[in-house]
């Protein structure tokens, strides 16, 4: 890094985006495997676990394109990304407080929606902070990491 760039707000924003990516990817990557292990310890059958976790995949699939369209239309990309993070947090709270099938399905669906929103939100914030050539670094990290989980 060049000496004059250390105090540049642009580069500070990119570093913050890198850290945000790392934290979100770590949290989202751990979600499915740890949840499946916890449910297995509670006596759930593999078929029940798989069916309940399907909610997240279906929700993510259905929300990805509309979320991308929405984030392109709104002016506050940060608020969009923040609401996605709140959805993932709420889904974790539901999982911690409830263990019935309907609650689990709802929580995984909320997590899937949040995951899709985070993916497009990170891309939108990356584009807002930098030009298209530089944003590939920020959006590529989370998109590659999230796609490798599926």
Textual characterization of the structure:
The protein is mainly alpha-helical and 150 residues long. It has one domain. Helices cover 86% and strands 0% of the residues. It contains five helices and no strands. Helix 1 (9-41) runs antiparallel to helix 2 (46-73), helix 1 runs parallel beside helix 5 and helix 3 packs antiparallel against helix 4 (101-129). The radius of gyration is 17 Å and the shape is elongated. The model has no long low-confidence stretch (mean pLDDT 79).
Concise synopsis of the structure shown:
The protein has 5 helices and no strands. It is mainly alpha-helical.
Ordered list of secondary-structure elements with their pairings:
Elements: H1 9-41, H2 46-73, H3 77-97, H4 101-129, H5 132-149
Helix pairs in contact: 1-2, 1-4, 1-5, 2-4, 3-4, 4-5
List keywords for this structure.
150 residues; mainly alpha; 86% helix; 0% strand
